[in-house]
């Protein structure tokens, strides 16, 4: 693909020739690699619903979050290569399994291939909403290529302080880049729209995961989002941080978030009078909630 010959799909601007087999910072070339394709019930209620979200977990990532719960696929790049046609076929298969939506998880580095797959799938009758579920570290020019194809954006807004972004994700200018990306996402999909069953059909949910010892940074994130969008978006304030093996030697990350810190963040959001928000129970900070990346569904036919 031409856009991958001198890759500038994401803010990293690696300029490598992925079409010729070179590997970008995302860890992949031009082949679509996936680790799991299945109904998923761990998203926000209006996304998972009762039938589940049709989640496609892509391998590789343009961020390098040391604490990532999907570390085995985001940094170690576990997965299996599939063709663009197979990706389109899997979208149709998930729709036939009654998924409420197609949930593209960590899709940034595959934008050109995903565009082609969506177009193929729509020609075959794909009608359910398509979700772009990302880290928020996106390039405006690439997001504009998705305009009209994505119904729901589900970005993270991870850090306010650039020092934290560099320390934990090696992502320079994260807040500036991610907030501009979210503005473009909102421009494309606008105010949230739901069906009669309360399933999200269009709109944006911005996720923020509270990290250990980062309460004040999180408050700044929540304040920015509400000050900027009021209740035109939903904010998902997440409490599911789970320390995995890769953070064992990082003292400040090698423990769960303190209950009092998460409660404080929720009270802060309440005091701001935020209406459209999702919160999590403390039980969500558990390894059992991490999907099994075992190639489930990748070879499944319909």
Description:
The chain has 302 residues and is α/β, with parallel strands linked by helices. The protein has nine helices and ten strands. Strands 1, 2, 3, 4, 5, 6, 7, 8, 9 and 10 form a ten-stranded mixed beta sheet that branches. Strand 9, helix 9 and strand 10 (277-279) form a beta-alpha-beta unit. Helix 3 (84-96) packs across helix 4 and helix 8 (215-229) runs parallel beside helix 9. The mean pLDDT is 95.
Provide a short characterization of the protein structure:
The protein is of the alpha/beta class and 302 residues long.
CATH superfamily: Aldolase class I
- Rg: 18 Å
Task: Work out the count of structural domains.
Answer: 1
Topology, number of strands: 10
Class inferred from helices and paired strands: alpha/beta
Percent in helix: 25-40%
CATH class (first level) name: Alpha Beta
Q: Bin the strand percentage.
A: 15-25%
Q: Cα distance, first to last residue? A: 28 Å
Task: Quickly list its features.
TIM Barrel; 302 residues; alpha/beta; 9 helices; 17% strand; ten-stranded mixed beta sheet
Which secondary structure elements does this structure contain, and how are they paired or packed?
Blueprint: E1 32-40, H1 45-48, E2 53-58, H2 71-74, E3 80-82, H3 84-96, E4 102-105, H4 111-123, E5 130-134, H5 140-145, E6 152-155, H6 162-169, H7 174-189, E7 193-194, E8 200-209, H8 215-229, E9 234-238, H9 259-271, E10 277-279
Parallel strand pairs: 2-4, 4-5, 5-6, 6-8, 8-9, 9-10
Antiparallel strand pairs: 1-2, 1-3, 7-8
């Amino acid at each position: 693909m031409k856009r991958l010959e001198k890759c500038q799909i994401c803010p990293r601007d690696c300029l490598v020739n992925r079409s010729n087999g070179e590997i970008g910072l995302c860890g992949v070339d031009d082949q679509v690699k996936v680790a799991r394709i299945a109904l998923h019930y761990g998203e926000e209620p209006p996304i998972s619903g009762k039938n589940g979200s049709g989640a496609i977990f892509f391998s590789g990532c343009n961020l390098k979050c040391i604490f990532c719960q999907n570390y085995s696929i985001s940094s170690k790049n576990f997965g299996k290569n599939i063709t663009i046609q197979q990706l389109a076929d899997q979208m149709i298969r998930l729709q036939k399994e009654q998924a409420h939506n197609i949930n593209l998880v960590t899709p940034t580095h595959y934008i050109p291939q995903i565009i082609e797959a969506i177009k193929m799938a729509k020609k075959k009758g794909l009608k359910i909403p398509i979700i772009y579920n990302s880290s928020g570290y996106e390039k405006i020019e690439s997001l504009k290529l998705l305009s009209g194809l994505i119904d729901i954006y589900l970005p993270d807004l991870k850090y306010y302080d650039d020092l934290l972004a560099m320390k934990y994700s090696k992502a320079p200018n994260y807040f500036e880049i991610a907030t501009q990306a979210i503005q473009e996402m909102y421009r494309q999909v606008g105010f949230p729209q739901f069906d009669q069953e309360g399933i999200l059909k269009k709109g944006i949910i911005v996720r923020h995961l509270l990290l250990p010892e980062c309460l004040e940074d999180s408050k700044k994130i929540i304040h920015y989002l509400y000050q900027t969008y009021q209740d035109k978006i939903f904010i998902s304030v997440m409490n599911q941080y789970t320390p995995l093996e890769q953070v064992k030697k990082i003292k400040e990350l090698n423990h769960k978030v303190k209950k009092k810190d998460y409660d404080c963040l929720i009270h802060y959001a309440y005091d701001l009078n935020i209406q459209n928000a999702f919160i999590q129970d403390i039980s969500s900070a558990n390894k059992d909630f991490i999907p099994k990346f075992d190639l489930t569904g990748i070879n499944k036919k319909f």
